[in-house]
Amino acid sequence: MNHLYIIANIQAGSGNGADVLNQAQDYLRKFRAPFITLTTEYKGHSIELTQQILAKAEQRTLDTIIVVGGDGTLHEVVATLKKAKQTIPIIYLAAGTGNDFKRTWSPNASVESTLQQYLIHKNITTVPIFESYNHLTKNTDVVLNSLGFGFDGTVIYEVNTMPQDAFFRQFLNGKFAYLVNVFKAVSKLDHFDVQLTVDNQTIQLEDCQLISLMNSPYLGGGIQLSNDIKADEKIINVVAIKNVKPINLLKLMWQILVSKITPAAEHYFYTKGEKVTIQIEEPILSQVDGELLNKDQAHLTLTLTEYPFYL
């Protein structure tokens, strides 16, 4: 059997990563499957660990990497492999607070059933993802779940800046933490204009508060932003919330997130395409796959691609 590498964020999900890692290691030992475990120690460390694995790949037979952690850890590993033009299949064992990737593609899978896809069934699933090109920095990246600007980025900022000993950080994760910080983000509502090019059609959106390019119906740990998105459609979904005043935003978010009601056309925009370019002139907070990005202008082009997983 070929050698397995495990990249594990044991701090993910308030320590859930360590539990998931132990389950995975115990199950692999039952099958006498050899593995090497590498644990992350800081944000971005999984990028370095993936690069180390690739550098050693010539010395070992490598056909799979196991990722234990949240969507942010998975994002870093997939992005690093894509930049290296590698398509080594990934076994993803979700252990984060959001886990929107697992919720979309393998909601009922356990650690054991996921590992069985590799150990027994040899069943690879090719998952559609987005590849992004930043025209300002000339860098490439991937999007597994969503790339969001404005209110979505502000909520993630509020989640990340909660005190380490805060009640909500200790006892509320994922969807609940996101919803709690929606209220805090309302007072910091941005208003910005967006230029979209969707399959060669140019669209101008004015007075936006949120725009998200989505590969999954979910964000923030299971919050469904739009009823229009179907994950298996293999398309880039674009959802925008616009022309909303702070006093009306909470009512609108309640309609979307709790009542599952699509807002009136005055406040809601949806389109989809195989290639999307987005331009935002003013610096704006944003997030990709639940990880906060630097506040900056945006000029990005997203295209469809895919990646192999054992799910």
Automatic annotation (TrEMBL):
Kinase recorded as keyword: yes
Keywords, in A-Z order: ATP-binding, Kinase, Lipid biosynthesis, Lipid metabolism, Nucleotide-binding, Phospholipid biosynthesis, Phospholipid metabolism, Transferase
InterPro entries: ATP-NAD_kinase_N, Diacylglycerol/lipid_kinase, Diacylglycerol_kinase_cat_dom, Lipid_Phosphate_FormReg, NAD/diacylglycerol_kinase_sf, YegS/DAGK_C
GO MF, one example: ATP binding
Top-rank taxon, per record: Bacteria
Biological process according to GO: phospholipid biosynthetic process
Cofactor(s) listed in the protein's UniProt record: Mg(2+)
Record-given protein name: YegS/Rv2252/BmrU family lipid kinase
Organism of origin: Globicatella sulfidifaciens
Source organism phylogeny: Bacteria, Bacillati, Bacillota, Bacilli, Lactobacillales
